[in-house]
Amino acid sequence: MIFSATLFKFDLYMVELEKEIIGSWFEIRSNIENIGNLRDYFKLSDEDLKKTAQKLKASIEGGITEYKKAEIKSVFNLIASLDYDTSSLHLIKETANNINNLTYVILIQRLISKKAVKLRVPQNDEEEKGIEKENLRKYSLTEIVEIIKEVQELVKKDPLLKTNKNVINILVQVSKYKRENETMKKILPNIPAEKIEIIRLNYSKTLNEIISKILISYKALTTEDKLIEGKKEQNKHILETYDISIAAELLKKQAETSDRIRTTLNYADREKFRILEIIQTIKQYEKSLTGSFAIEEKHYYNMALSEAGKREISRQFCLEIIKILEKHAENPI
What is the number of helices (H) and of strands (E) in the chain? Predict the structure, then answer.
């Protein structure tokens, strides 16, 4: 009898939880089409906005999808840890808050994909670097080699590209790298032990500058519309060169699932009743979310027709959302 009563009480809790989930998403949907309305609805603190912007900056390497994967992974890592050790129960509220920030980011991304948010093209090189200057993607040398090979292949197919300033810049940096490398090989055996670290740091700095210049030129090269035909679109943001609206519905579903997770975590933390069992219900969304992120990346690949292009689309989403969050933090409601 006691077991039945407890089970009945749990069922009632689950019914109430579902009501909260539905109600929360209803409120979000009422504000979903306008970034100003979303900002008013979520009312994120300056700390939340800045913290989320920092996480996005740390994820620029893989772009917006890397950030989303990391945030969702933290939820399922927490759930897994609670199976063996309940000492992490105090993290439920914090995790719920992080997922709330994630939902906001996804909804901003959705508005960008629907072109409901105006994208501003940087007017000069310094402005273009902006956020990227301190967060330039750390490509592996293997990836840099692949980029150089790709550019060389483009030049083979269309010799006229030899006059393209971005191609010229890349090839100049490649030559510079070869010279620096040869110089280092020659002087390294004769460098005094006490100076090796200084020389190494200087070489590393020079190498990073070369790689940065290659990446900046490569980015400019890949944002040119119909590159092989020699056409270049001016005053147009890279995200406007693709039909990114195809991802809008997918992003909406991501946000809905994300908010469902947030609501469940908050409900479990608040009610303090069979917390672990309530949280376990979140597990069913892991596969659908990871699958959704994979589909999103596939969309970007199909748009750009290359791994580098796919990554650049994801990066640009990341960069734009960082600008929006930092602007909101500077101009609180």
Answer: 14, 0
